[in-house]
């Protein structure tokens, strides 16, 4: 008998078992646990309010999830090549990872961009880079998701101009910008401006796309980063949906009809290790959102009630030790997302605790989804776990817990106020520390880390980002600055600054600045001049 | 002998601060005095904070791949200011191929994802420069 594996006769259930989020789990569940559940009221058939079992009547038999692999690194030329490989391998959508200078609205030659250009994603400094990124990729034939938040409106403007150049009507294109600034203050911390003007940028995008780009998903309200920062599953669910409520409220306050913009809102959740708890989270999310939209906001269009979501497997669960184990973790997490009815999915690569993924690792991650879709048989029946005593109990508890958090945040005056008081940030930091302590005390096992870690480790090949990306991007930027119409750039930036101080929708002036080949840093600086920058008080 | 004083810093543009915050609390629970700089600190600001706080240790949290630019700059600034008794450690996503380069700079405490907090506490206790603790 190998070390660490007790013989079967000695196996005893520990007195207390908790999910990864700290929820106590009983040894067995029976009908008494779900006595209060009413089928039609709480679950109902797939495609029927409150959509607990899914938003589509036929589930994946009607519409397979989109296999959308997040990718981006180095120069736009290099990433363009990777995109073409992913599409050739059967990927059905693109998902752009931008580098940190782009995410923070800084040009590659800004001092704070030192060492960051092209590292965590692709560098896009102006329209010229966006043209290179989608060179020979017809925007009419694909949908593109862009993980961009503070400068989301600017990158959307660049994408729209590329579509225009390709002769593709804005009415026809589809895709998503993340555009979720609230979770940046809460978790990922890639904010530029204070909350007030940041929220105005978000609602300007809602209004503009509602009129001009009707198939665009204007926001992806994201729990992913909240979970990665260390929250529990419940906190992820509650804070994300409460952020969603905050956006709808701001849209309504800006004079928009919820049924005009909410159908284009989408969500983004983590798919973590705790299999059943994750599935319960997705089901509770759909139920909660349908009620919030119908009962709190009085939305009448069914599409406003239906929560659509993208899922990504948990990057934070991947280990640098024994990296091949990460393939298995990702497969289990992806299966949870599928059984929870994800509308779109990204599976992480095995090497992501070490570096950005190699093309081989990224392909294997895509294959994982394809095997679930084509070989496992789980797609033939909608919500196949519905009715499980355990799952329904978890779903009910998850919903109740989220409603409690909504109440707390409402009492604080809303999410913007709660963020300014540091409430969600503190809750997440507590959970992160509690989890780490459990691992160290041996209360939580991680294979290859604190159990079964004594075998010889097999390394994996990792992707290396050339250090010359920065030089190449800066050289192209200098060329651009020499050859563009400097007067048009200056005029367009002055207009952006002026509109920022008015109540007029910013999108038209951003589009003009983009067309003039103003750089992302220049456009963001014009708004920094107008609005100032946000700084958080560091706390531990 | 006074407690070990640690400056935990997040250099660069990255905002992922889970690791930095968890480690800061672990070091504090282990009896060290911890100063967390907050986000987006330049090497100049970090070394300045270490000097001002009379720190024995600088802990850099870098997940973005900028370590090859930031670490040499921090070491260079310490040398310029003739500070020889501050231990520099790094946590985050550091590819294996970069480890020798960091070692050459004198950085041997390199902690990838999954490193137990206790390992980091022990490393600091064992490697903190004696001159500093006795100061």
Automatic annotation (TrEMBL), chain B:
Cofactor(s) for this UniProt protein: adenosylcob(III)alamin
GO molecular function: cobalamin binding; isomerase activity; metal ion binding
Matching Pfam families: B12-binding
Keywords tagged on the record: Cobalamin, Cobalt, Isomerase, Metal-binding
This protein's record includes keyword Metal-binding: yes
Record-annotated B12-binding domain positions: 3-131
InterPro entries: Acid_CoA_mut_C, Cobalamin-bd, Cobalamin-bd_sf
SUPFAM superfamilies associated with the record: Cobalamin (vitamin B12)-binding domain
Keyword set includes Metal-binding: yes
Protein name: B12-binding domain-containing protein
Species for this entry: marine metagenome
Taxonomy of the source species: unclassified sequences, metagenomes, ecological metagenomes
